[in-house]
Amino acid sequence: MELLHSLEEFQEFRNRKGISLLQVSNDRCLPCIAIKEKLEVWHKSNSDINIGYISIDEVREAQSVLEVYAAPSIIIYIDGAPSLYKSGYFSLEEVYDYIDKLRMIIE
Predict the structure, then answer these.
(1) Is residue 18 part of a domain?
(2) Predicted pLDDT at 31
């Protein structure tokens, strides 16, 4: 998982080719910490997916630029274009299934 510390790093991350998953969180959110840990484990067997993490506590302007109003949030990009947005309470399994379907379409 790549930690993003600025909007410039986010822009570079988002514009990568292929599928990218961005977790947007704050440092006090316990579900955010749990999701981050699960994504790190999942990424070990799904290394073809770019995974990034940005804290709205560290990069304050990210909240307005990304239009994120709740934590945790996940945004999936395909070649830089947003494809899926999940926020608040959601199932990571649904996110994983969505990524599997994208893989089939892209291949």
Answers:
(1) yes
(2) 93
